[in-house]
UniProtKB/TrEMBL annotation:
Name of the protein in question: DsbA family protein
DSBA-like thioredoxin domain: residues covered: 210-392
Organism the protein comes from: Shewanella nanhaiensis
Entries under InterPro entries matching the protein: DSBA-like_thioredoxin_dom, GST_Kappa/NadH, Thioredoxin-like_sf
Pfam families according to UniProt: DSBA
Source superkingdom: Bacteria
Length: 402
């Protein structure tokens, strides 16, 4: 039987790495009798500023987000974020290298670090320079492979992040071997549950769903498509608040990150039945066109239809939104009048509200798009809308019981 090599890059301080190891404990026996799986573990400690433009906010969100996944899958996870000294961290990192390619041993180190914190047996890696050398070697290997963060699994040319991308690997393996198996890690899809009765009355009591959106973000495209579906299904009003893309705010995005996002968006789109892939990057003039006409679309009561048309145009139809001919097509696709719309192109008012929207996003403790806010629930990522759906379903249940 041919060996299937799975490379797992784990960061001791990363909650997604911790959950991924726990998921692999269940994953391995499910597929092991059909496939010879060989896990190779690489401890890393990557924190590239291009990959994590707001590292403190990312870490805070990651802990909260991981806590929610614990409820879905029944993983172990501390109630409060552990506070560890540098000595405890380095000792545990050294213990990870001692664990070598044992999933059980690696998970034991993570559990000890996240739940207990006492020093572990670090074996021969007591020397700081030797530990740094080993970590740097793995960081460089991760970089050469084409990625930039921990909590990642690499198999035969494709990357899988954390627990919520494992389902893509499962489907790939099932198709590869023609296996009659059910996937294990598919609990983050939207349910779109129906109403029992009194739908109109229920909808009147539901607060709005707010989407923070960038026209250049591939994940925002997926987020908008799903938010529109959710809005229509549950009768929740959708409010979209556009912000400037990262690059137009002076932040850089590495080529590795852009490439990963493109490929990940394609498979996430396929999974969710959303078109994506024929892209015409609107960076610069295309973004300015989009936002300059947003107020006009709002006055016509068609702001969501307008952004959806624009997003589909630049993400699925390859329409050049930087040209007036391309922009005209998009405006007409949204059911708007081009003669009226083009008189708004010189407006610069959008720069003020785009800035306010970004400031509001930061006030929520978030920084990236797409992000969603519903009552007191704020989440980052198109793949986290299921958390919002849970809140909506709770509200529907409460209203129906009154």
């Amino acid at each position: 039987m041919r060996e299937h090599r799975l490379e797992v890059f784990i960061d001791l301080q990363d909650p997604y790495s911790y959950l991924l190891l726990q998921a692999l404990v269940e994953f391995r026996p499910h597929y092991f009798s059909h496939l010879k799986l060989a896990f190779h573990f690489y401890p890393v400690n990557c924190q590239d500023s291009e990959a994590f433009p707001e590292l403190a906010l990312w870490k805070a969100n990651a802990f909260d987000d991981a806590s929610y996944f614990v409820e879905r899958y029944g993983f172990d996870f501390p109630a409060n974020k552990p506070m560890r000294s540098d000595g405890e961290l380095r000792c545990a990192q050294a213990a990870l290298f001692k664990a070598e390619n044992s999933l059980t041993a690696c998970l034991a180190v993570f559990r000890h670090f996240w739940h207990e914190g006492a020093e572990l047996d670090s074996g021969s890696l007591n020397c700081d320079s030797l530990l740094d050398e080993r970590l740097d070697t793995n960081n460089h290997y991760l970089n050469r492979r084409g990625h930039y963060m921990g909590g990642m699994l690499y198999y035969a040319g494709e990357w899988y992040w954390g627990v919520d991308r494992l389902v893509h690997l499962e489907r790939r393996l099932i198709k590869l071997k023609g296996l009659n198996l059910q996937t294990l890690f598919d609990k983050s899809d939207l349910a779109f549950k129906g109403f029992k009765e009194r739908k109109t009355k229920v909808c009147e009591h539901l607060p709005p769903l707010t989407l923070y959106f960038s026209i250049r973000s591939p994940y925002s495209h997926l987020g908008l498509e799903q938010a529109v579906r959710m809005s229509e299904h549950y009768g929740v009003k959708l409010v979209v608040k556009p912000v400037l893309p990262m690059v137009m705010r002076g932040l850089s995005v590495s080529s590795k990150k852009k490439l990963y996002i493109f490929h990940d968006t394609k498979r996430e789109a396929l999974k969710r039945g959303i078109r994506y892939g024929f892209v015409a990057d609107p960076l610069g003039k295309g973004v300015e066109h989009c936002y300059a006409l947003f107020d006009y679309a709002c006055r016509q009561g068609r702001e969501v239809e307008y952004l959806l048309a624009y997003s589909r145009a630049v993400n699925t139809q390859g329409i050049n939104s930087k040209s007036l001919s391309g922009l005209k097509k998009i405006v007409q696709m949204a059911g708007l009048d081009w003669q009226d719309a083009q008189t708004e192109l010189s407006s610069e008012d959008w720069r003020d509200w785009a800035k306010r929207n970004l400031e509001e996003l930061y006030e929520l403790g978030l920084w990236g798009v797409p992000s969603f806010s519903y009552k007191t629930c704020q989440v980052w990522g198109q793949d986290r809308l299921f958390r919002i759906e849970d809140e909506i379903l709770e509200d529907i249940k409460r209203v129906e019981q009154t």
